[in-house]
Amino acid sequence: MSREQYRDDQFYIDKINRLREERKAIILAHNYQRGEVQDIADFNGDSLALSREAARVDAEVIVFCGVHFMAESAAILSPRKTVLIPVPEAGCPLADMITPQGLREMKKRYPTASVVCYVNSSAQVKAESDICCTSTNAIEVVNSLESNQIIFVPDENLGRYVATQTDKELIFWKGSCPTHYRVLPEDILKAKEKHPKAKVVVHPECRLGVIMLADEVLSTGGIVKFARQTDVKEVIVGTEMGLVYRLQKENPHKRFYLATEKLICPDMKLTTLEKVANALERMEHRVTVPEEVRDKAKRALDSMLEVEV
Ligand code: 13P
Fold first, then answer.
1. pLDDT digits over 119-130, tens only?
2. 3-state secondary structure 46-73
3. Domains along the chain?
4. Position 2 pLDDT exceeds 90
5. How open is the CA angle 168-69-288, to the nearest 5 degrees?
6. For residue 59, how far is its CA from the centre of ligand 1 (angstroms)?
7. Is 31 near ligand 1, meaning CB less than 6 Å away?
8. CA angle at 40 for the pair 37 and 45, rounded to the nearest 5°
9. Which of 31, 163, 210, 283 could staple 206 via S-S, CB 3.0–4.6 A?
């Protein structure tokens, strides 16, 4: 890092620390955020841990460093808190692949099926669903339902992986995370050739051909735990590059290799220290959800939070 970059970062870190106190704010950051943003956060985690934290924290203001659906989930779970997203355009292409109208039409075709909705979705889609899931608890959520037929939206890859782990019949929506979708089986084979002693850990948003080559299939939080507990010294990581920063920081004596350089989510990289400082200074950009949608979406999120993992 250049001297100028260090000075700029320090300027914004000091500003964030001062404003965080003044505003009685808490900063939550997803594991895919830039390293410097993870470093200033009060809490880093995966989607499930961040939802739990948002519902639990005793703060007037939550600054959510992640993408829009994550901040929206925090606003659904904690309506009395002010939820801010530093960059409102930070979206999730996977979440945008399904509309409430599309889901309603699917429900008409399978009237007796239950609907499980991955948290990477809008509040309106959550409101049309029976229960949400994250990559940490998707299998448990599906198995917790009485119905044997389940509409699983919007991530087809996660759904297909879950289908290999349950006896239930899953009906998929054709959605996928473009970042994870770019990873091909040959990328994993190449990485294994380069690092023959390494274990391969991938996110369940990867395509099934990639998942089949992995030693472990885990959420980002699951990968953090795995990295801490494993005796192996080298790990090939098949998920967004931001996680590798955290893994390396927490496990300096182990080596983590990104499975392919293609694993970068442009939306997750939009949040910078400057944007976080601006959010706190200007108290923007507020994320709210209309009450009638919020109420139904909260039911789906609350049902998920009740499922034990
Ligand atoms: P995790 O819940 O595993 O952190 O996944 C979040 C996500 O959006 C993956 O693309």
1. 999 999 999 999
2. CHHHHHHHHHHCCCCEEEEECCHHHHHH
3. 3-91+268-282 (3.40.50.10800), 94-176+291-305 (3.40.50.10800), 183-262 (3.40.50.10800)
4. no
5. 125
6. 24
7. yes
8. 70
9. 210
| pTM exceeds 0.90 for this model | yes
Q: What is the mean pLDDT of the chain?
A: 97
Strand boundaries in 135-270, DSSP class E: 149-153, 169-172, 199-202, 216-217, 234-238, 255-258
Tens of pLDDT, residue by residue over 145-199, are: 999 999 999 999 999 999 999 999 999 999 999 999 999 999 999 999 999 999 9
Atom of ligand 1 nearest to the CA of 218: 3
Q: How far is the CA of 178 from the centre of ligand 1 (A)?
A: 13
Show the CA angle centred on residue 51, arms to residues 176 and 274, nearest 5°: 85
pLDDT at residue 51, as a whole number: 87
- In whole angstroms, how large is the CA radius of gyration of the chain? 19
